[in-house]
Design goal:
332 residues, Jelly Rolls, alpha+beta, rod-shaped, 5 helices, four-stranded antiparallel sheet
């Protein structure tokens, strides 16, 4: 009995040793296998003595990630490379070389060739141009046909007003004289129409005619309703430029104006002719202006009706021609 008891006690102790060894063996495997410390060790932040087991990294304020000591776990994951295809659009500015050609087109320059104070005395020009030649009753200009047309002149001292069409610097006295083409009934000696002819070089010209109704008024002995109307035609270089022109109807009494017409002369003589319609054609002044074509870059600004930078200062000294007839120039 004593031997069996001792044998049993020895076997029990032997079993305990074997079991303890197994426990320690398993514990060692657990440590080697890297089972998280959260299972066998204390909770995050430590329990009791606040000691963090060896082999763990504790991060305050974030979930605790335990990295076993001397253990490196590499998880091989496929590397995915995403290639983003970028399309770079390069815009190259296209520069178009533009050559700006500026053509300055200004009003053609003008040269005053002739001025006639129709029906009156010679007037001195105030703009540096040619004077206004006399065309009186006893000394008619040789550019007109007064000797054979039966035209006559008279003057007035009435003050004159002018329309904006009259060039700045035009003497008031131009409108205070007049030549009218009388047409006496049954007298055929005055049947030829009043005209003016000017020798010029072939080219372009501006003809300026100065009109004022200084005879008819609205009452008295020269009442327009009783003696009028005065209507007549005007031809320049054979072209009708005014038809049945009635000065009083357009202007009233003692109000002057200027009418301008541009023509081309090819035969060396510029012709202006006045034709009867009712009553007598009447004129107060005439200018012949050469229009010089081409790009003459001049700022005319506040024009006075003449180009004072290109006025002919010798025009007034040109030799006068003989009287003019319907058939042409004749000897004086």
């Amino acid at each position: 009995m004593r031997n069996m008891s001792g044998s049993s006690s020895g076997g029990f102790i032997h079993g305990i040793l074997i079991g303890g060894g197994v426990v320690f063996f398993v514990a060692g495997l657990v440590i080697v296998a890297g089972i998280p410390g959260g299972i066998l060790g204390p909770a995050a932040g430590g329990a009791g003595n606040g000691t963090t087991p060896a082999g763990t990294t504790q991060t305050t304020g974030t979930p605790t990630e335990t990295t076993p000591t001397a253990t490196t776990t590499t998880t091989a994951q496929p590397t995915t490379t995403t290639e983003t295809e970028e399309t770079t659009e390069t815009t190259t500015p296209t520069t178009t070389a533009t050559t700006a050609t500026t053509t300055r087109t200004s009003a053609p320059s003008k040269t005053v060739r002739y001025r006639v104070n129709v029906g009156g005395r010679r007037l001195q020009a105030s703009d540096g141009g040619p004077d206004w030649l006399a065309d009186g009753e006893n000394n008619p200009t040789r550019f007109g046909n007064a000797r054979i047309s039966g035209s006559h002149t008279n003057q007035t001292d009435d003050p004159m007003t002018m329309t904006p069409a009259v060039p700045k610097g035009t003497p008031e006295a131009v409108f205070q004289s007049r030549r009218y083409d009388a047409d006496v009934k049954d007298d055929h000696s005055d049947d030829r129409e009043m005209q003016y002819r000017f020798p010029v070089q072939s080219g372009t010209y501006e003809v300026r005619l100065y009109f004022v109704e200084s005879y008819f008024d609205d009452s008295g002995w020269n009442d327009y309703e009783k003696g009028g109307p005065r209507k007549f035609d005007v031809e320049v270089e054979g072209k009708r430029v005014l038809h049945k022109y009635d000065m009083y109807k357009e202007l009233g009494h003692d109000r002057g104006t200027m009418k301008s017409f541009t023509v081309t002369v090819r035969d060396g003589v510029l012709n202006v002719k006045f034709l009867h319609d009712k009553e007598d054609p009447m004129l107060s002044g005439i200018e012949i202006v050469r229009v010089n074509e081409g790009n003459v870059n001049k700022d005319r600004g506040d024009s006075d009706g003449t180009d004072d930078r290109s006025l002919s200062r010798t025009a007034a000294n040109q030799p006068l021609l003989a009287a003019v007839t319907d058939s042409g120039l004749e000897a004086a």
